Amino acid sequence: MGRKSLKGERQKEIIKAFYKVAKKEGLENASIAKAAELIDINPSLVVHYFKNKDHLVYGLIEYILDKWLLIYKVPAEDATDPKTHLLKVIDNIFSSKWNTLFDDSVSYSCYALAFRDKTIKGKYKELLDTLRQRLQELITACNNTRVLSVKNPALTADLIFVLVDGAYYYLSLVGDKKEYQQKLEQYKKQALLLLNFS
């Protein structure tokens, strides 16, 4: 038996440390040295796995996707029925669960880099397209079982995520918890209307 490679695990550990530093100090102040210090390794080991900070940011964006995809994870008993599965995912998307998966300031800082870095732009587009694709698949499953009759599942999934993106961008500025929750409920109702759920 060969020895199991630790590369993937070590890379995840470094990305998580980089995320913690970025969350605390801002992405612009996060560095290879600070991430290495947090997990008590030599910065040269970080450079061994990630050529430079840009490559670490690329890994961070993939980490964001992994975290955001958790929104599609529902209890096994809910996953067997397409309607229940879709409604649980909509509940997850329009809940504090979605907003606690990943720090907004780090996410928006990464997103801002997409305007200057084609690789980051491509990775962010892939991230957002994956979220839409997964929602489209759930809508299509509901159409196939005649629970829903959505004419264009791809467009509907896209519109829901346009609503989500705008909602959380705006809600990140809302300090009042009651107002935040009311707005979130309003946005969720609009998403359900797009799905022809009343």
Automatic annotation (TrEMBL):
Entry-linked InterPro entries: Homeodomain-like_sf, HTH_TetR, IcaR_C, Tet_transcr_reg_TetR-rel_C_sf
Keywords: DNA-binding
GO MF annotation list: DNA binding
Superkingdom to which the source organism belongs: Bacteria
Pfam families, A to Z: TetR_C_37
DNA-binding annotation, residue ranges on this chain: 31-50
Record keyword Nucleotide-binding present: no
Residue ranges of domain HTH tetR-type in the record: 8-68
Keyword Isomerase annotated: no
TM region positions: none
Role according to the record: Represses transcription of the icaADBC operon necessary for biofilm production.
Assembly, per entry: Homodimer.
Protein name: Biofilm operon icaADBC HTH-type negative transcriptional regulator IcaR
Organism: Filimonas zeae
